[in-house]
Write a structure and sequence with these properties.
5 strands, about 260 residues, 5-stranded antiparallel β-sheet, elongated, 2 domains
């Protein structure tokens, strides 16, 4: 985390929240709200939560302000004359069609749904090396070549809360070699899969779901990997997400309830 950047983001975040509360023009408030969502996405990114940052950027800074602006335009249209409804319908249909074609093109390259060996569920390639007989011999003997070791440590080190290749175990597999590393965790001391070196020279970093699928019963005593991920591995995260959802539900009830009825 970069402390000066964190303080700057916090300052703009508080400023945006205050401006939303005091500004009178609805359109201006919506624009500031979108800026608030964008700043919040950067805050989540600084907190090493890219998944929440992407969600905040898409929803908080994108979808919600767009829906608000659309609602505001519909409210204003009551006072204005109805113009070119047919043209608007055609433009809207073409926009939806173009987006559909873009999504269809993107989905065609996606892995099969539920594929446990897809990159998103298993591992991500971080770099590639020219594999030679010396590398193969070293890996077969349980030693990570110096070039690979240095590249990995340069990308992921202790300053990023990532274990270095100090105490590791190399296991030969069908397609290459698994590199298991001791993470010195409080309750789990055995090495876990962290890197996979393919015979063709690609070096991969295992994703977190691999650990959940392989160690969920041993570490949490829960057979369902989704439940263990939400209720155990990400227990604090899930707890605060539920608080946010509960607060939102209460606010909606307060807004739509009949006057005088709780």
């Amino acid at each position: 985390m970069i402390v000066p950047l964190d303080l700057i983001l916090l300052f703009f975040l508080i400023s945006a929240a205050i401006c939303i509360s005091v500004v009178r023009d609805l359109l201006s408030a919506i624009v500031i709200f979108g800026a608030y969502g964008f700043i919040m996405a950067n805050v989540w990114l600084q907190l090493n939560a890219p998944d929440i940052a992407f969600t905040e950027a898409a929803v908080g800074a994108g979808v919600v302000p767009a829906m608000m602006i659309a609602t505001l335009s519909r409210l204003k249209s009551r006072k204005e004359k109805k113009v070119r409804k047919k043209l608007q319908s055609v433009v809207g249909f073409l926009t939806v069609l173009i987006l559909f074609l873009i999504f269809a093109y993107a989905i065609s390259d996606a892995p099969a749904f539920g594929d446990a060996n897809s990159p998103a569920n298993r591992y991500i390639m971080i770099f590639r090396v020219e594999m030679n007989e010396n590398y193969v011999e070293m890996l077969n003997s349980g030693v990570v070549p110096i070039e690979i070791k240095e590249k990995i440590e340069k990308m992921f080190n202790k300053s990023d809360n990532f274990p270095e290749l100090e105490d590791y175990l190399v296991l030969q597999t069908k397609d290459g070699w698994d590199v298991l590393i001791k993470t010195h965790e409080l309750y789990y001391h055995e090495p876990i899969k962290l890197y996979f070196i393919k015979k063709t020279g690609e070096v991969y970093r295992y994703n977190w779901p691999v650990r959940v699928l392989e160690k969920t019963v041993e570490e949490t005593g829960i057979y369902n990997a989704v439940t263990s991920g939400l209720a155990d591995y990400r227990g604090y995260d899930t707890m605060f997400e539920e608080i946010v959802i509960f607060t939102a539900a209460v606010c909606v009830i307060l807004l739509v309830r009949k006057r005088g009825v709780l």
